[in-house]
Amino acid sequence: MRLSMIRAGALCAASAFALAACAGRGIVPASQSALNPNALNPALQDDALSPLATSCATTPPQYQWILKGACTKITLKPTGATFTLAKYQDISVKGSIGDNSLKAPATVYLADATDKGDIANWKGGAFPKYKARGTTFVYAAAVNQGKTPIVPKAGNKPIFEYDITDAKGLPGKQCAEAVIKTVNHKPVWNPLPGVFPVKGKTVSLKQFNAPRGIELASKIPLYFAVNCF
Fold first, then answer.
1. What is the tens place of the pLDDT at every residue in 134-174?
2. 122 and 64 in contact (C-beta within 8 Å)?
3. CA torsion sign, 201 to 206 to 212 to 218?
4. Residue 83: phi, psi to the nearest 5?
5. Measured between alpha carbons, how far is 141 from 151 in angstroms, rounded to an integer?
6. Coil, strand, or helix at residue 17?
7. 42: Cβ–Cβ under 8 A, 6 or more apart, which residues?
8. The dihedral of CA 72, 89, 160, 81: what is its sign?
């Protein structure tokens, strides 16, 4: 009993000494999470609360409806770029933007969400849900931070590609996608060509042709929706 008490006292003293040392060097622990054993194991943390999942849920870099899921920033070149979004709500996304009209590299942010309380209202209005065959299970946005619109160029590689994996399994055997176009100052969903087969827990959606009017306008998000059936 006495030995246990001595060990406990030594532990407390060591902890106090460490904290005092940090204070003496001007180092202050960010939060109690440093003492939380779950913080040492990312597998025990909630994807939705990960710093990676909420790093750009502000204006800027997003505008209009803000997607609060995973987010990443890429430097898009005239020949395109690849991207990877951190896992969010069991959904992982990677893909690419292909050849385009840029003359010099531009910064583009990409974000996703599920529209289950993770898309902020804009001008008092809720994000327009995509109502299509089967289940719409994920939304994404590409946001051009530059002053020049980015127009996709058709070629031998996809103008847009989204490879989506859901660890819980996709809600169907094939999937499709759509983008928002503005018609009479109102957002309207427009399906993109193609139906893509689900392989295991992943679907690869590739667009090789640029539909008329599709571009990454300056600081105006291009929203995507994916439905499976």
1. 999 999 999 999 999 999 999 889 999 999 999 999 999 99
2. yes
3. positive
4. -150, 160
5. 16
6. helix
7. none
8. positive
pLDDT in tens, 85-137: 999 999 999 999 999 999 999 999 999 999 999 999 999 999 999 999 999 99
Name residues whose C-beta falls within 8 Å of residue 84's C-beta, 6 or more positions apart in sequence.
Answer: 72, 93, 94
Question: Does a cis peptide bond (omega within 30 degrees of 0) precede residue 60?
Answer: yes
DSSP string of 32-94, one letter each residue? GGGG-GGGG-GGGS-GGG-GGGGTT-STTTS-SSPB-S-EEEEEEBTTBEEEEEEEETTEEEE
53-to-24, 88, 109, 197 alpha-carbon distances in Å: 34, 7, 13, 28
Distances (CA, A) of 61 to 107, 142, 143, 207: 10, 10, 7, 25
Q: Who contacts 58 (Cβ-Cβ below 8 Å, separation ≥6)?
A: 66
